[in-house]
Amino acid sequence: MTSHFHSFQFLLLISITLLCTTITTTIAQSAPPPGPPGPTNITKILEKASQFTTLIRLFAITKVGDQINTQLNNSKQGMTVFAPTDNAFSSLSVGTLNSLSDQQKDELVQFHVIPTFISTSQFQTLSNPLRTQAGDSTSYNFPLNITTSGNQVNLTTGIVNATVANAIYTDGSLAVYQVDKVLLPMSLFGPQPPAAAPAPEPLKDKKKKSGDEDTTATSDGKASANSVGRIGLRRDLHGLTGGAIAIIIMFYL
User: Fold this and answer.
1) Which residues, 6+ apart, have CB-to-CB distance to 103 below 8 Å?
2) In this structure, which long-range contacts are made by residues 118-122, counting pairs with CB atoms below 8 Å and at least 24 apart in sequence?
3) pLDDT per residue as tens digits for the range 34-93
4) Are 96 and 129 within 8 A, CB to CB?
5) Is a pLDDT exceeding 60 seen at residue 25?
6) Prediction pTM value
7) Cβ-Cβ contacts under 8 Å for 138 (sequence gap 6 or more)
8) pLDDT band, very low/low/confident/very high, at 192 (cuts 50, 70, 90)
9) Which residue stretches does the UniProt record annotate as biased composition, category Polar residues (predicted)?
């Protein structure tokens, strides 16, 4: 009797096991496949990589983080971000960031963003100066030059020379590269462009009267004191000559 009871328990256990396996398999087969990943978010990428707290804060203050996410999800050109670490920001002079206006902070952050996707292999063939989202890439504005030496990628702004440490993230649309220094643009931290040469002064107008010497006109259109003096002297001589002639005629009469 006992042996039959144990046999019944054994068969029951096997049946339950088979039933559970069948149910699990059925549920697994009927579950929908995982959906596509959500939209790219630069802030989450930097948070996952850690050591980018200051850059994340600047992205939030200037709204550049939201701008990057919007452009990524609405453009096929992709984007590239050069991300300075917290250590890179801490190496700046004390008060550097606080001395910038909101617009200047925006320009500083935009200077670290390229509006196209750049893979590691493309660094070898870039044309300088590279145009950033800060805009004008001329000498005294936002020039960014990239050179390579073997596997090393160097960035030059005219103020600092930085190096790409490694690739934090790349998916064919967004590339995020860690850099060891904050990229300081010429427009905010460099010398001002030389002042333009002053325009030449206009030549003074000269007027010449028939039978008279030249008289130089002043700014208010009147003759100069020297020319007036010369004219008065000439009139006095004419008067003296006329008087002498009158005396001679009276003598002969």
Assistant:
1) none
2) 118/80, 118/175, 119/170, 119/175, 120/153, 120/167, 120/170
3) 444 567 899 999 999 999 999 999 999 999 999 999 999 887 889 999 999 999 999 999
4) no
5) no
6) 0.64
7) 129
8) confident
9) 216-225
Q: What is the dihedral of CA 37, 42, 43, 46, to 10 degrees?
A: 100
| Sign of the C-alpha dihedral computed for residues 137, 183, 153 and 77 taken in this order | negative
Q: Tokens in use for 211?
A: 């039978």
**Cα distances (Å, whole numbers) of residue 2 to 8, 16, 91, 113, 208:** 10, 21, 82, 79, 145
Q: What is the CA radius of gyration of the chain?
A: 43
- Per the CB < 8 A criterion, the answer to whether 125 and 220 are in contact is no
Given a contact cutoff of 8 angstroms between Cβ atoms, the answer to whether 216 and 227 are in contact is yes
Q: Which helix (H) or strand (E) holds 74?
A: helix 64-74
